[in-house]
Specification:
Blueprint lengths: L26 H15 L5 E8 L5 E10 L5 E9 L7 E6 L6 E6 L4 E4 L2 H4 L21 E11 L2 E10 L9 E7 L4 E8 L5 E13 L2 E11 L4 E12 L10 H4 L2
Antiparallel strand pairs: 1-2, 1-13, 2-3, 3-4, 4-5, 5-6, 7-8, 8-9, 9-10, 10-11, 11-12, 12-13
Length: 257
């Protein structure tokens, strides 16, 4: 999966119009095809968004994020914290690759250093929230197997449930995930995230969706850690698609400028 499922509400599909007999397709192969189809339909245009993130303690973090697909095919995202003052100018650079593991870098202002994030760091709270760094970077689609596990109505939308299980569990933050997806608008409305003991750990919900320039855009998201009874909210303040962004924004040198 190449788009951030948390920050931009990455879409997984549960419905696909095909000119063939769906019953003849193994369920796991068909689910994989649906996932890929929706990811291919996700916005490919450059964007800039301004967001706020609340922590379980009630602190508010403000940041901007820019995204662009580079000429080498890498989906790159640059994130810069703009407030509060004690973490201002913390910057992240995220590279999403389709065929191998992603790379993430952070610029730490008080150290004046650029650090490549380790796997352990990616599993820690993002800016003190219930989101992890790994919640905003998603590994290649073929690192997982997929299958349909039911139907559920969420709000006014009839959703199909798709279970995602890592092929190499030791490399992943979660033991499995279950996505509730609207097959009409191709949006994820809820993600249930399980730990490696198969206990429900966190629930990510899209609480407010609006269409901007033809793209369904999540304006309010919630991440609840059900084991710790903690919660964070992520709100989109504004977003611009087809934003004019130069490639230099997505280079390591830009982090420590």
């Amino acid at each position: 999966m190449r788009r951030s499922m948390v920050m931009l509400g990455c879409a997984l599909a549960a419905g696909l119009t095909v000119i063939r007999n769906a019953s003849a397709i193994p369920e796991e192969d068909d689910a994989r095809a649906l996932v890929q189809r929706v990811l291919d339909a996700a916005p490919k245009v450059p964007y800039v968004t301004r967001m706020t993130l609340t922590t379980p303690g009630g602190l508010v973090r403000e940041f901007t994020m820019s995204g662009k697909t580079l000429a080498n095919g890498i989906d790159a995202r640059y994130l810069e914290v703009t407030g509060p003052y004690n973490i201002k100018d913390t910057r992240y650079l995220l590279y999403d690759r389709s065929t191998r593991r992603d790379d993430q870098f952070v610029y730490v202002p008080f150290m004046k250093r650029i650090i490549r994030l380790s796997e352990k760091t990616r599993r820690e709270p993002f800016l003190g929230s219930t989101f992890y760094v790994n919640d905003i970077v998603v590994p290649p689609v073929d690192d997982f197997t997929y299958r349909f596990v039911g139907m559920e109505t969420i709000g006014q939308r009839s959703c199909r449930l798709i279970e995602s299980v890592p092929k190499n569990p030791a490399q992943e933050t979660y033991g499995r995930a279950v996505f509730a997806v609207d097959p009409i608008d191709l949006v994820v409305l809820r993600v249930q995230l399980y730990d490696h003991d198969d206990r429900l750990l966190k629930v990510h919900t899209i609480d407010k969706l609006e269409k901007v320039d033809g793209y369904w855009t999540p304006y309010l998201q919630t991440m609840r850690n059900v084991q710790d009874a903690d919660m964070s909210e992520l709100e989109t303040v504004d977003i611009q698609y087809n934003a004019p962004i130069g490639d230099e924004v997505f280079r390591e040198a830009h982090l420590g400028r």
